[in-house]
Specification:
- The longest helix has 33 residues.
- This protein has two domains: 70 residues, no CATH class; 60 residues, no CATH class.
- It has seven helices and two strands, in the order αβαβααααα.
- By secondary structure, it is mainly alpha-helical.
- The chain is 52% helix and 6% strand.
Amino acid sequence: MTTWASTINEVLALREHLLREQVTLVVMEATSDYWKQFYFLLQDGLNVMLMNAQQVRNMPGRKTDVSDAAWLAQPGAFGLVRASFVPPEPVRQFRDLARTRTMFIRQRGSEIQRLEKLLEDAGIKLSAVATDLTDVFSRAMVRALIEGERDPAVLADLAVYRLRAKIPP
């Protein structure tokens, strides 16, 4: 039994070794993101089966990575477990973009909440007047506050559109 590193060159060398040995099936467990590099580099020229970690997790006899790998080959070779679905490249790219967008939206919301808390800690209840702390008025008011403006009349004069109606006469 040999051990292979997870660098790209080592995985490519592993693929060449498996092809030389005429291996017909490579079985691996899908754990976190660790499987991706191996799966995508090995699938060029080899039949690679990705097993769902939940399907094979609680099966007996697995104590180390080496015994785990030897054990996983058996249910894979005999078709005792189903291979995990790996979507095609365009779908994977779209999923990555969607996840990244979701992460940015969450971060943006978190930063807006931090801004509101910071303003409230300073005694400025901007959210009572403006529902969106990132609109033109709110950004102008925050910019004016940063520049040192403290006069409520001057700050209120920054209001635009429907917010102008909220300014007391």
